[in-house]
C-alpha cells in the first residue's frame, strides 16, 4: 500500500510539472528548473518556507513513532552542477552534515558546504550553511528514495557572479543559496549507506542590494556520498 501511494505521489508530481511550462520566464525551460514553477518556486526562498511549513504540519498532525531507531546520521557528499544560463558556470561542491529523523518518512538536517564556481569570468570559493528537510516517499529494507529542499547563506571570497558579455550586473559576496533534489540511500553495511541523486542549485542575494546587483546563478547536477548512522543496526531501521 505504501509503495502504491508513493508511486501515485510521484505520478501526480510528474503530471503537475508537465502543465507548468507557461509559468517560467522567457528562455527558461521547465526541465531546467522542474520545481521552479508557481507557486512552488523551490529555487527561491520558498525552498526554505515550504519545507518548514510541511515539517511543522506533519509534526502537529501525525503521531510520534516510539519505535523509531537510528535517528541521527552523519553524511559527506560531493558533486558537480552546470549552469544552464550564460556563462554556464561549472560548480563543483562538497557537503558535510547531520540528519535527524523526526518521523520514519521525514528528517531534518543541517550541512556545511564548499562551492567552487568556475567559468570564463568567475573563479572563487564559497562557504555555505544550509538547513534542509527530507521527505522519504519510498522505503524498502535496503533503500530509501527521498525529496529534499532547504536553503541558507553562502559567502564567496570574491563577488559572484561577475558581469559578463550577456549580463552587466555584478553579484555580491554574501548570498542566499537554495537546493532541492531527488536522492536515494542504499545500505552497503550495518551502519553505512551510499547516497546519490540529482539537485538543482540556486545562488542569489534576494535583491537586497537592488536588482542591478543580483544576476543570480542556477545549475543542475548530481552528487554521490556516504551516510554513517551512529548506533544500532541499519537493517532494523
Write the layout of secondary structure elements.
Elements: H1 2-18, H2 46-61, E1 72-83, E2 90-103, E3 106-115, E4 126-139, E5 143-160, E6 172-187, E7 192-204, E8 217-229
Antiparallel strand pairs: 1-2, 1-8, 2-3, 3-4, 4-5, 5-6, 6-7, 7-8
Notable features of this structure?
single chain, 237 residues, mainly beta, 14% helix, 46% strand, globular
Describe the model.
The structure is a single chain. By secondary structure, the protein is mainly beta. The protein is built from 2 helices and 8 strands, in the order ααββββββββ. It has an 8-stranded antiparallel β-barrel with strand order 1-2-3-4-5-6-7-8. The longest helix has 17 residues, at 2-18. The chain is globular, with a radius of gyration of 18 Å. The protein starts with a helix and ends in an 8-residue tail after the last strand. The mean pLDDT is 89.
Task: Write a compact overview of the structure shown.
The chain is mainly beta. It is built from two helices and eight strands. It is globular.
Amino acid at each position: 500500500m505504501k509503495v502504491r501511494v508513493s508511486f501515485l505521489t510521484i505520478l501526480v508530481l510528474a503530471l503537475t510539472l508537465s502543465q507548468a511550462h507557461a509559468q517560467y520566464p522567457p528562455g527558461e525551460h521547465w526541465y531546467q528548473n522542474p520545481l521552479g514553477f508557481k507557486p512552488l518556486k523551490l529555487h527561491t526562498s520558498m525552498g526554505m518556507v515550504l519545507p518548514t511549513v510541511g515539517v511543522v504540519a506533519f509534526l502537529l498532525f501525525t503521531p510520534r513513532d516510539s519505535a523509531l531507531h537510528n535517528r541521527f546520521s552523519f553524511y559527506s557528499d560531493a558533486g558537480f552542477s552546470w549552469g544552464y544560463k550564460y556563462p554556464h558556470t561549472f560548480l563543483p561542491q562538497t557537503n558535510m552534515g547531520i540528519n535527524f529523523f523526526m518521523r520514519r518518512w521525514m528528517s531534518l538536517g543541517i550541512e556545511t558546504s564548499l562551492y567552487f564556481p568556475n567559468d570564463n569570468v568567475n573563479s572563487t570559493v564559497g562557504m555555505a550553511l544550509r538547513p534542509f528537510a527530507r521527505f522519504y516517499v519510498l522505503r524498502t529494507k535496503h533503500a530509501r528514495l527521498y525529496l529534499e529542499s532547504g536553503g541558507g547563506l553562502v559567502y564567496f571570497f570574491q563577488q559572484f557572479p561577475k558581469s559578463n558579455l550577456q549580463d552587466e550586473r555584478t553579484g555580491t559576496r554574501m548570498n542566499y543559496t537554495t537546493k532541492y533534489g531527488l536522492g536515494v540511500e542504499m545500505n552497503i553495511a550495518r551502519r553505512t549507506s551510499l547516497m546519490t541523486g540529482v539537485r538543482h542549485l540556486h545562488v542569489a542575494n534576494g535583491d537586497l542590494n537592488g536588482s542591478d546587483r543580483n544576476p543570480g546563478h542556477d545549475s543542475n547536477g548530481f552528487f554521490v556520498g556516504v551516510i554513517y548512522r551512529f548506533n544500532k543496526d541499519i537493517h532494523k531501521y
